[in-house]
Write a structure and sequence with these properties.
The chain is built from 9 helices and 6 strands; from the N terminus they run βββαββααβαααααα. α1 packs parallel to α4. Among the domains are: 79-118, no CATH class; 149-284, Butyryl-CoA Dehydrogenase, subunit A, domain 3. 60% of the residues lie in helices and 14% in strands.
Length: 288
C-alpha cells in the first residue's frame, strides 16, 4: 500500500466533563514537519501525541489540532486562587508605581493567568488516555484517506508507465532500418568528398558515426527503470523518495536519447517520454 502525503481526518469524543476534538491534516513536504495547536488545558498531551504521530507518518507537513470543550453542566464553577489574585494585584500596583505609563492588567489577562482558576470537578490529567485513544482513531481514518488517494496516484503512474512502454515498443523495431538508411546517406556523402575513394576509411568513419548515434543502450536502461518504478509501486510503503530518484534517472536517459538521435522517430519518442516522465514526477511529489 502506498500513501499520499495529503490527507484529512477529524473526530470527536464525549468524555467526562466535556468533548474532545482532534483534527489532522497534511500537505506535501520533503520531511516530517509536525505543527500542533493544543488548547491550554491539554498541553500535557502534546509530547505523547507527537510521538504517536511520528510512529505512523514518515513524510509531510502535518497539522494537529486538539481541543476540549467543557460541558455546561460538568460541575461546580471554577474556584479563583485568592492568594495568586492578591499577588497579581500587588505586582500590578508595583509595576505601575515604577512605570506609570504601563498598562494595567485587564480582566481577560487576569482570568487567563496560569493557575488562577481551578476546577475541582474536572481532572484534566485523567483525559490523557482518552485523548491518545482519540488521536489513534483519528490517525486510522487519516491513514485510510491517504491510502485511498495514494492508490489513485499509483494507478495514474502505472497508466503512464504503460504508455511509455508502448512508445518504446513501437520505436524499437524501426531504429535499425532508420539508422541503416541514415548511415547509407553518410557513406554516399563521404564518397563525394573523399578523393580518391578509400573504402576502408569510409567504412571506419561510418562505423564510428553509427556507434555515436546508437541508442539501444538508452532504450534498454529506460525499460529497466520503468520495471523498477513498477516494482517500487507494488512493494508499497514509503515510496516517494525512491520514485523521485527514478524519475531523475528516467529523465536523464530520455535527454541522452534525444541528444544522440538523428532519426525523427526516435527524437519524437524522446520528447513524448520526457512529457510522460514529467507527468509522473508531479504525481510522485505527492507520495509519502
Amino acid at each position: 500500500m502506498i500513501y499520499s502525503m495529503t490527507g484529512y481526518a477529524a473526530r470527536s469524543s464525549v468524555v467526562n466533563g466535556g468533548t474532545l476534538h482532534v483534527e489532522l491534516k497534511s500537505v506535501n513536504s520533503r520531511f516530517l514537519d509536525c505543527h500542533f495547536r493544543v488548547c491550554d488545558e491539554l498541553r500535557m498531551v502534546e509530547l505523547p501525541v507527537r510521538e504517536t504521530i511520528s510512529q505512523r507518518i514518515r513524510r509531510g507537513k502535518v497539522e494537529c489540532r486538539v481541543s476540549f470543550v467543557v460541558a455546561g453542566d460538568c460541575g461546580p464553577r471554577p474556584n479563583i486562587n485568592g492568594t495568586l489574585l492578591e499577588r497579581l494585584r500587588d505586582l500590578d500596583a508595583e509595576v505601575r508605581r515604577m512605570m506609570p505609563q504601563a498598562t494595567p492588567l485587564s480582566v481577560y489577562d487576569i482570568l487567563h493567568w496560569p493557575g488562577l482558576l481551578g476546577d475541582e470537578g474536572l481532572e484534566l490529567e485523567a483525559l490523557l488516555p482518552q485523548c491518545l485513544d482519540l488521536v489513534r482513531a483519528t490517525l486510522d481514518e487519516f491513514d485510510a484517506s491517504r491510502a485511498r488517494e495514494g492508490e489513485k496516484l499509483g494507478q495514474v503512474i502505472r497508466d503512464t508507465l504503460a504508455r511509455m512502454r508502448s512508445l518504446l515498443r513501437e520505436v524499437g523495431p524501426r531504429i535499425p532500418a532508420a539508422q541503416a538508411a541514415f548511415n547509407e546517406k553518410v557513406r554516399q556523402r563521404l564518397l563525394e568528398v573523399v578523393a580518391p575513394p578509400d573504402d576502408d576509411r569510409i567504412r571506419q568513419e561510418v562505423a564510428l558515426f553509427a556507434a555515436r548515434i546508437d541508442v539501444a543502450e538508452e532504450l534498454a536502461r529506460l525499460s529497466t527503470h520503468l520495471d523498477e518504478v513498477d516494482r517500487v509501486l507494488r512493494a508499497g510503503g514509503a515510496t516517494g523518495k525512491r520514485l523521485d530518484f527514478l524519475m531523475q534517472e528516467l529523465n536523464r536517459e530520455a535527454n541522452t536519447l534525444a541528444s544522440k538521435s538523428l532519426v525523427a522517430e526516435v527524437s519524437q519518442t524522446a520528447i513524448e517520454c520526457k512529457l510522460l516522465i514529467e507527468q509522473m514526477r508531479e504525481q510522485v511529489q505527492n507520495l509519502e
